[in-house]
Amino acid sequence: MKLHLSVALAAILIAGTVSAQSVNVGIKGGLNVYNINNDNGVSNYDTKPGFNLGVLGHIHLARQIALQPEVVFSTQGAKFKNQQGVDTKINLNYVNVPVLVQYMFDNGFRLQAGPQVGFLASAKRKTGSVEVNTKDNYKSIDFGLSAGVGYVHPPTGFGVDARYNLGLSDINDNNPTNITSTNRGVQLGVFYLFNHKN
Predict the structure, then answer these.
(1) CB of 102 closer than 8 Å to CB of 56
(2) Nearest to residue 32, comparing CAs of 12, 53, 2?
(3) Is 74 helix (H, G, I), strand (E, B) or coil?
(4) Which pLDDT tens digit goes with each residue over 52-88?
(5) Nearest alpha carbon to residue 90 among 100, 82, 99, 101
(6) How does residue 140 score in pLDDT terms, banded at 50, 70 and 90?
(7) Does the N terminus or the C terminus of the chain have fewer Cβ atoms within 10 A?
(8) Contact by Cβ (8 Å): 79, 87
(9) Cα separation of 128 and 80, whole Å?
(10) Angle CA 109–98–23, to nearest 5
């Protein structure tokens, strides 16, 4: 219920600004390369590829400053080999809501950074061909920071984006080992802004 309400509010935030003079909406998608960092220094995982897909709002606050809220479905997690040497994947699916502040250069390049809230949609662990639902082992909300660079081709509204997402909160729940785990990942993608305004 919290997930549905939060996503709905974020979508309303983006949609509600469409009529403003200096606002664009757009779509985006791309590649994820994520991992889970554990603070015990022993449980080291390998990165796991995934994807992201979502919508964005691009709000011009000044000539070179913009605010960009997004609602993005993101497949995350990590992978490792268990004690028997069998490949195991931790598949965590989130609906992420970053709110980025952007500095826009005149040539189309952008620097961007801001907070991100992630809402856990599903969590499963797959060992070999056996898949187990593990959503109860993870917290429903993840807090983090996002930072990166982007480029938009002004005449067309098409662009590319690269960012690093750093989890700040422990994602574990019902955790008897007291290990703190955080999400970390790189996102590469493309986007399109409808009726792009320079």
Answers:
(1) no
(2) 53
(3) strand
(4) 999 999 999 998 999 999 999 999 999 998 777 788 9
(5) 82
(6) very high
(7) N
(8) yes
(9) 11
(10) 60
